[in-house]
Structures are given as C-alpha cells and as structure tokens.
Specification:
The chain is 24% helix and 49% strand. The chain has 506 residues and is of the alpha+beta class. It has an 18-stranded mixed β-sheet that branches. A three-stranded antiparallel β-sheet has the order 3-6-5, with no helix packed on it.
Length: 506
Amino acid sequence: MKGRILCSAMFFFFLLTGISQAKVESAKIYPQGCNIQESKIMESGRNDFFLPGKADPETLSVSPANNSFEIKKISRKKIKKEYPEKIQKLRQKLDKLKLENKRIQARLKSKNKKIEFWEAQINRKWDNAQDALEIGKAFTKPLSNTYLEKIDIKREIREIEQKIEKVKEQIREITAKERKKWKITLHISGPSQQKSKVDYSYYYPYAGYNSTYNLKAMPKEEKISFTWNTEIWQKTGKSWNNTQITLATIKPSFELTPPGLRPWIIKTRPSKKVRADRAKMQAQMAPGPKKELGRGAGEKPRKERKSTYTQWHLGSLDLPSKSPQTTELKTENWPAEFRHLLRPKHFSKSFLMAKIDLQEAKQIPRGKAQFFLQGTLIGKDDFRMQGNKNSIFFGNDPLVKSEKDLIQKKEGEKGFIQGKQTHKWEWNTRITNSHPYSVKVKVEEAIPQARHEDIELQTSLEPEPDEVNSKQHKYVWELTLQKDSQKGIRMQVNVQAPEDMDLIGL
C-alpha cells in the first residue's frame, strides 16, 4: 500500500514539475520573426517567468485559462544569464586536459634530447674506426625505438589538442548565447489554494522561413506545375518539441494608433556644398553596423485565408534551434496561356511567356525559384505573387525566332525638298515556328516618337497591329503560327525635318 502511495506521489510530482516548466506550445512564423505561445502553471499572487533577451516585451500578451483568475499587474526587468555549473565543469575538464598535454610535451622533449645525444655520438669523428662501428651498432636499436616512440607521442599530442579545442568550443558556445533575459513578474488575483494554466505569447525576431519554388512550364498541356517548399528555422536557443507550427505570409503590426501626418514642405534646393557638408555630418553621426546576434505522419499543411493574409497550419513539429527543417507546403497546377514574346528591334530570339488568370487570389511571398521548361532547368530567379493575375517568363525558345531585314534605307539631300532633309526605312520581319505544334506569338515594335514639332513622321504597317499602345509607345501583333510555318510583318518609316536640324536616333 505504501509503495503504491509513494509511486502515485512521485507521478503527480513529475507531472506538475513538467507542466510548470514553460513550453513552446505553438508558434506562428512569418518570413522574418515569429509569435511564440508558451504556457505555465501559476497561482494567485506573484509569479515569475522568463523571456529570451531578444524577445520584444512590448508584444507580451497574457491569458489565464481559468476565468476565476485575473491579471492585476505585469512588470519586466532585464537580467544577466548565469551558466556557473556548466562553465565550471568545462573549465575543470580543460585544466586537466592542459595538464595532461604538458606531461606529454615533457615526454616528447625527453625523447628529443635522447635522440640528439645518440645522433651526436654516431656522427662524431672517432680516432678508431672499430670504436665507431661498435658505438653505431650499440645505438642503432635504441635510436630506432626512440624514433617510433616519438611518433606515438606526437599522435597523443594531436589527440589531446583536439580534445582541448573541443572543450574550448563548448565554452565559447555557452558564453556566446544571449547573456541577458527578460524577467517577467505577473501579479494574479484568484482563488487561494488553486492553480491555473496561463498562456502567454510574445514576438521573437530571430526565426522565420525561406520560401523556394519550382515552376514547371508545360505548354502542350497549357498549365504550370507550381511547388512551394519552405525552410523553417528558429534561433531561440532551445528546441521546440511537439509544437504546433503555423506559417503566415505577412509580418504582424503591433501598432495601436496610426502614425502622425508628416508636413509637406516645398523649399529651394540647398547648394552642392551644403548638401556635401550635411552628408558628411550624417555619416560621422551614423551608428556602426549592427551585430546580429518532424511533422507527424500523415499530416498535410492546411491553408487558412484571413482578411489580409494567408496562413498554413503545418501541425505538430519538432524544430531544433539553429537546425532548419524543410517541408513541402503545396503543389498545384495553374492553367496558363502560353505565348512567345518577340521584340525584333532588339533580339531575334523569342521568350516564352505564360499568362495566368486564376479564380483564387494568391499570397506568395518573395523567394528563390527554379524555372523548368519541359522537364529541363532553364534558370533561377526571384518570384512572388499577390493577386490572381501574373505573367511569368520561362527563358528563350530557339525554335521560335524572328529575322528582321532592312529592305531599303534612303536619305534625301539637305535642301532638296523645300529646305528639308528626308529619311526613309523599310523592314521586313519574318517570324518562324519550328515546333511540331502551333504556337501563339506576340510581336512588339517601338512606335517612332518625334520630340520636336518640326519633325514629321509617317509610318506604314502591314498587317496592321492588333494594338497601338500609346502609353508604352509600342505596336503589338498577336499571331498564331502553325507548326513549321512563317509569317511576315512589313514596316516603313518616313522622317522629314528642317535641313539645319541635327537629328539623333536615326
């Protein structure tokens, strides 16, 4: 009976001890930073708990699970962290290793002295050759053994020095950790002789996730295969075990009131000397650079749309400090309209462009992306998407190209036509599709622009463009080329200007 009572008492002791320790129960991670939620068993009166030194105490939120408990006062203080036991044990170990290293070094020195003595005896000039032979014969074996012993001693020295360096590294790791932490004092009112679980959360800047993407273009199927991978990391100094992880696409704002309205001042620009002096002063006053200090089986990320952002619930994960974990967030196919973009004035090759118009808006943060065309990696670039529309390029396609030929170029003599100079160009552009399937092609040419009222321009185009974009000053043709086929565009430009006008851009 006594045994059962003792076992039960120990069980409840360890249970309460485990609960009373602050545990990271959940974390909402942003591309940079995170909101950490922990919990601890507290009682009526004063309770102390600690936050990492780099946590933002202004974002602390506290909530007792029991409605009978009420928060009366919260205070905070930054205190130094102490590591006396660990450091003392490691330094004792280091002293022992250093002493052992000195002993081994002394043995090595003794062996070197013996070798020097025996080598000196063998190499000295003996008057009697017989004496030299006998000395050499007597010293050869012990000298050889001493050489071997010296090799063994050097190996011992290397091993002990490696152990010394390892202990030094352990000491550096401990002392390099955050040297300060926040002590939070919480005054709670509630029923006496009762305890309550208290949840508290705070913002911690040294955590986040990096997004990487794979975008695979499949023109025949008219779709893009999109895969979103994330590398999640945290540097709190302790492992998160069995923690509910959520990824959010934007960083939160903790401001309660809007910022003030800045005055709009219009004044004369200061002289170059004044600006230079001001810049020099600001550079002198500027501060130096800042020193920056497994998901459960079968679980899949669950998407949740908020009013202004998207978050993904990854379920329960183990996330060690400073050990990033990679997980696949989602894979989906996007319907896309593919076309080849050609700008014959600048380059003959075409660039494959995918235009997407999705039913659901996307919130995809900036990240590194790999772009594939028909299973082949064609390049890497940054990628982000906000909304449901986008145009994505998948590199150049050598099988769809243009050739722009200058058919004629004429220049009239100055003064030949009523005191005017004339210029005339005519081009023929051939667009070729060498694919075994039809493709859509978008051709863009710049619209000639006269930047003087006395310059006259006339343009003739065949066929007429499908769009004349006046804002971007370009002609646009939308063409469909069947497999192994060609189409042409003819463009003629005439320019007239006063004979004494010096023109550029011809």
